[in-house]
Amino acid sequence: MICDNHPVALNPKLCTGATGRLAGFPGDAHMRVLIAEDDQVLADGLMRSLRNAGCTVDQVGTGSEADAALALHEFDVVILDLGLPKMHGLEVLRKLRARGSSVPVLILTAADSIEQRVKGLDLGADDYMAKPFSLQELEARVRALTRRGLGTASTVIKHGPLTFDVSGRVASIDNQMVDLSAREIRLLEVLLQRAGRLVSKDQLVEHMCSWGEEVSHNAIEVYIHRLRKKIELGPIRIATVRGLGYCLEKIAA
Ligand code: CA
Predict the structure, then answer these.
(1) Cα of 110 from ligand 1 centre, angstroms
(2) Residue 114 and residue 195 in one domain
(3) Are residues 32 and 121 located together in one domain of the fold?
(4) Could you read off the pLDDT tens digit of each residue along the chain, which spans 253 residues?
(5) In this structure, are 137 and 160 located in the same domain?
(6) How far, in Å, from the CA of 172 to the mean position of ligand 1?
(7) What spacing in Å lies between the alpha carbon of 33 and ligand 1's midpoint?
(8) DSSP summary character for residue 117
(9) How distant is the alpha carbon of residue 217 from its chain centre?
(10) What is the Å distance from ligand 1's center to 31 Cα?
(11) In this structure, what CATH number is given to the domain that contains residue 25?
């Protein structure tokens, strides 16, 4: 039932949003964003804007769909309208936090509902915007939230000799730039965010694609294979944990 009033979101060709990244929005490309908003015009504008910025975006139009999507999928940021049909946004947020998720949430509220804003922040929202708002400001706040989600205000992630500039989408090893495709960059980013920890193939699939887009486990293996050839030059290894997934490691010299 996800996106049933919005078939575009299920069209695999339109789901990646990976093309046409705007120069003015360098960071957080391929971040996976969920938009829970029942105002379709507003949702379409948000989706277009964030996809142009390189994010992978999914949209739902009811609170119960948002709740189901959040229980099943991993997102990097959630944009949550509070006035949603079927389940109020505050209840969606409460359930999300009750499941222990710390995904950054930006709530959208009507201009006059200060009480709901406060309630939302109390329930664990990370930021809010009152309608109407500028898309530019929303993009800036989403950028800030994704950085916070990475657990760092810095836009550079380091792992041994490997450096990844989240804003510029550039990876380098010992200051030598590594030539990576958009998907390889996304894959590396996900592994780096969880360096030293096991990342399952399902998690990688989740972060690589939007609903409707097919990225199989086999495809993940191919991307991992390519990425290994490019980054396993020094002490960096992408270890295979058989039957479970992968782990980005540093091996002692
Ligand atoms: Ca609404």
Answers:
(1) 8
(2) no
(3) yes
(4) 333 333 333 333 223 333 333 323 334 346 889 999 999 999 999 999 888 877 889 999 999 999 999 999 889 899 999 999 999 999 999 999 898 888 899 999 886 778 888 888 888 898 889 888 888 888 888 888 877 665 544 567 888 889 888 767 789 998 889 999 888 888 898 898 888 888 899 888 877 776 656 788 888 999 999 999 999 977 899 999 888 899 999 887 6
(5) no
(6) 43
(7) 18
(8) H
(9) 19
(10) 24
(11) 3.40.50.2300
User: What are the b/e assignments for 102-135, b being 16+ CB within 10 Å?
Assistant: ebbbbbbbeeebeebbebbeebebbbbbeeeeee
Q: Are strands 105-110 and 56-60 parallel, antiparallel or unpaired?
A: unpaired
Which of 127, 149, 171 marks a domain boundary?
149
172 and 140 co-located in one domain: no
Cα–ligand 1 centroid distance for 12 (angstroms): 26
Q: Are residues 189 and 145 in the same domain?
A: no
Task: Compute the distance between CA of residue 206 and CA of residue 202 in angstroms, rounded to an integer.
Answer: 6
- Cβ-count burial of 250 within 10 angstroms (0-12 exposed, 13-18 middle, 19+ buried)? middle
Distance CA 135, CA 243 (A): 43
- Residue 201 lies in domain: 156-250
Distance 27 CA to ligand 1 centre (A): 28
Contact 116, 97 (CB under 8 A): no
pTM (whole model) above 0.85: no
